[in-house]
Design a protein that fits this description.
The protein has 225 residues and is of the alpha+beta class. It has helices at 2-26, 46-49, 78-84, 89-94, 97-104, 136-153, 215-218; strands spanning 52-54, 57-60, 65-68, 74-75, 107-113, 119-126, 157-168, 171-182, 185-194, 200-209, 221-223.
Length: 225
């Protein structure tokens, strides 16, 4: 389960980088995005970017996002999230997100699971100006070959790769659906991009056993109003 989660997390970053390249190809006036340097964060620090778990919900004001956990699911603890980002809990709490993103290119801000092989994670990463010129469907399209190559490199195959419209928190959202086979086990992955105005964006990735209904989890993902 841990190996699966880490590969899926890495694919979130792959999608972002490919999307940036695609954005440059679609506009001759777009500047080359800098994917190796930290975004400007003079007025945006850790407290403004990181979300928090309180009771049965994760909220993130910067992303205008609330995620309510389904029955039987549990959020990862702060210690577990710190470890996933390569920090001790104390150091993670004191480190600005800009330093984390500059070092690793992304930050896991939330993860929850049902205690088995089903999970939902949220990764924060640098936003790119090129993404503003692309729809989610275009991003998914430009990313397909790279994602397939990444999965094939570890012996996994994509049986289905499609952009679909799904109900997320009671609203229609564009979602990337992938049916994946890994080591003889099939599962479904659903990916949602969150692109607020500012220096950061986020990717939500839901991984479920094959043919499980994603709706109970998707219903709990809502915008703050």
């Amino acid at each position: 389960m841990k190996r699966l989660s880490m590969i899926l997390l890495a694919l979130c970053l792959v999608l972002a980088l490919v999307a940036c390249g695609a954005g440059n190809q679609t506009s001759s006036t777009a500047n080359t995005p800098e994917t190796t340097s930290a975004p400007e964060t003079e007025n945006v620090g850790t407290k403004e970017i990181r979300g928090k778990v309180e009771g049965d919900a994760y909220t993130n004001d910067y992303l205008n996002l609330c995620i309510e956990r389904p029955q039987g699911w549990a959020f990862y603890t702060e210690d577990q999230i710190a470890e996933m980002n390569g920090f001790t809990t104390e150091l993670y709490e004191e480190t600005d997100i800009a330093d984390i993103v500059a070092e690793a290119g992304q930050q896991t801000d939330m993860m929850m699971s049902d205690g088995g092989s089903n999970s939902l994670n949220l990764i924060i990463q640098p936003s790119q100006s090129a993404l503003e010129k692309l729809t989610d469907e275009q991003i998914f399209q430009f990313s397909e070959k790279t994602v397939q190559d990444q999965l094939n490199a570890v012996g996994w195959t994509i049986d289905k790769y499609e952009a679909v419209t799904m109900q997320v928190g009671g609203e229609d959202r564009s979602v990337l659906h992938m049916a994946i086979t890994a080591n003889g086990v099939s599962f479904d992955e659903y990916q949602i991009w969150i692109r607020p105005s500012g220096d950061y964006m986020a990717t939500l990735t839901l991984a479920l056993q094959k043919d499980m209904d994603p709706q109970p989890v998707l219903d709990g993902i809502k915008n703050l109003h």
